[in-house]
């Protein structure tokens, strides 16, 4: 079903190679994103909504910057372009914001689902405390399902953004392309999600410092791995 699972390894190592090759830009981008996200998330009512909305915009900026291999130096301009360049581009602003809005709706749905399933606790210890063995196993199964859905959602959103930014596809067309990629390469895409997204989700239950440390070494490499895999799979598709 998925003969090219071995491709995931080079994409993962390639993503970290791209990260270290321009470490100042990507480290600064990650630190700035985490700082803004921390400030915005503390806003009452709309904080988390705003974080979910502006995160795809920055991811799209990272994807576009990654597609400029000759860009070097001038870190202030490039960082500014990553954060706000997409919104200033009339060809990309509306499609990317459409993807962000759809992502927000799906994220809210999963948040409500987590509340219903009882896996929205602030910590893993709180969710598993004062329960017998059967209840803990059941909670673990529900938590695994919930994490899987979040990984799938984040990976889908990133590939939709890649098709929008790199492939000049409209949002619905980008979604169709992404679903086609899932059908052709499910284990490959899932392996990238498990490598990068699953640690982020787990770290969210382990406190802000752990979450920040994990984000510093996964957020940009995740996006760059999506860039590398999308370009590779698109080239394979055009050559087949």
TrEMBL record:
Q: Where are the transmembrane segments?
A: 12-39, 45-63, 92-117, 137-166, 187-206, 212-230
Keyword list, A-Z: Membrane, Transmembrane, Transmembrane helix
State what protein this is by name. Answer: DUF624 domain-containing protein
């Amino acid at each position: 079903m998925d003969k090219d699972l071995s491709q995931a390894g080079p994409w993962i190592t390639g993503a970290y190679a791209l990260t270290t090759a321009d470490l100042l830009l990507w480290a600064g981008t990650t630190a700035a994103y985490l700082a803004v996200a921390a400030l915005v998330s503390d806003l009452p009512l709309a904080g988390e909504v705003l974080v979910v909305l502006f995160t795809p915009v920055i991811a799209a900026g990272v994807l576009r910057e990654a597609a400029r291999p000759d860009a070097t130096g001038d870190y202030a301009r490039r960082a500014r372009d990553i954060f706000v360049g997409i919104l200033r581009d009339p060809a990309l602003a509306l499609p990317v914001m459409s993807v962000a809005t759809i992502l927000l709706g799906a994220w809210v749905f999963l948040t409500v689902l987590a509340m219903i399933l009882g896996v929205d606790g602030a910590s893993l210890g709180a969710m598993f405390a004062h329960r017998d063995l059967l209840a803990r196993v059941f909670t673990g199964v529900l938590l695994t399902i919930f994490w899987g859905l979040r990984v799938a959602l984040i990976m889908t959103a990133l590939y939709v953004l890649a098709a929008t930014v790199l492939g000049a596809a409209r949002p619905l067309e980008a979604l169709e392309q992404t679903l086609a990629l899932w059908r052709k390469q499910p284990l490959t895409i899932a392996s990238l999600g498990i490598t990068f997204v699953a640690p982020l989700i787990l770290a969210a239950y382990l406190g802000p410092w752990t979450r920040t440390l994990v984000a510093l070494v996964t957020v940009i490499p995740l996006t760059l791995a999506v860039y590398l895999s999308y370009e590779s799979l698109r080239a394979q598709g055009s050559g087949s």
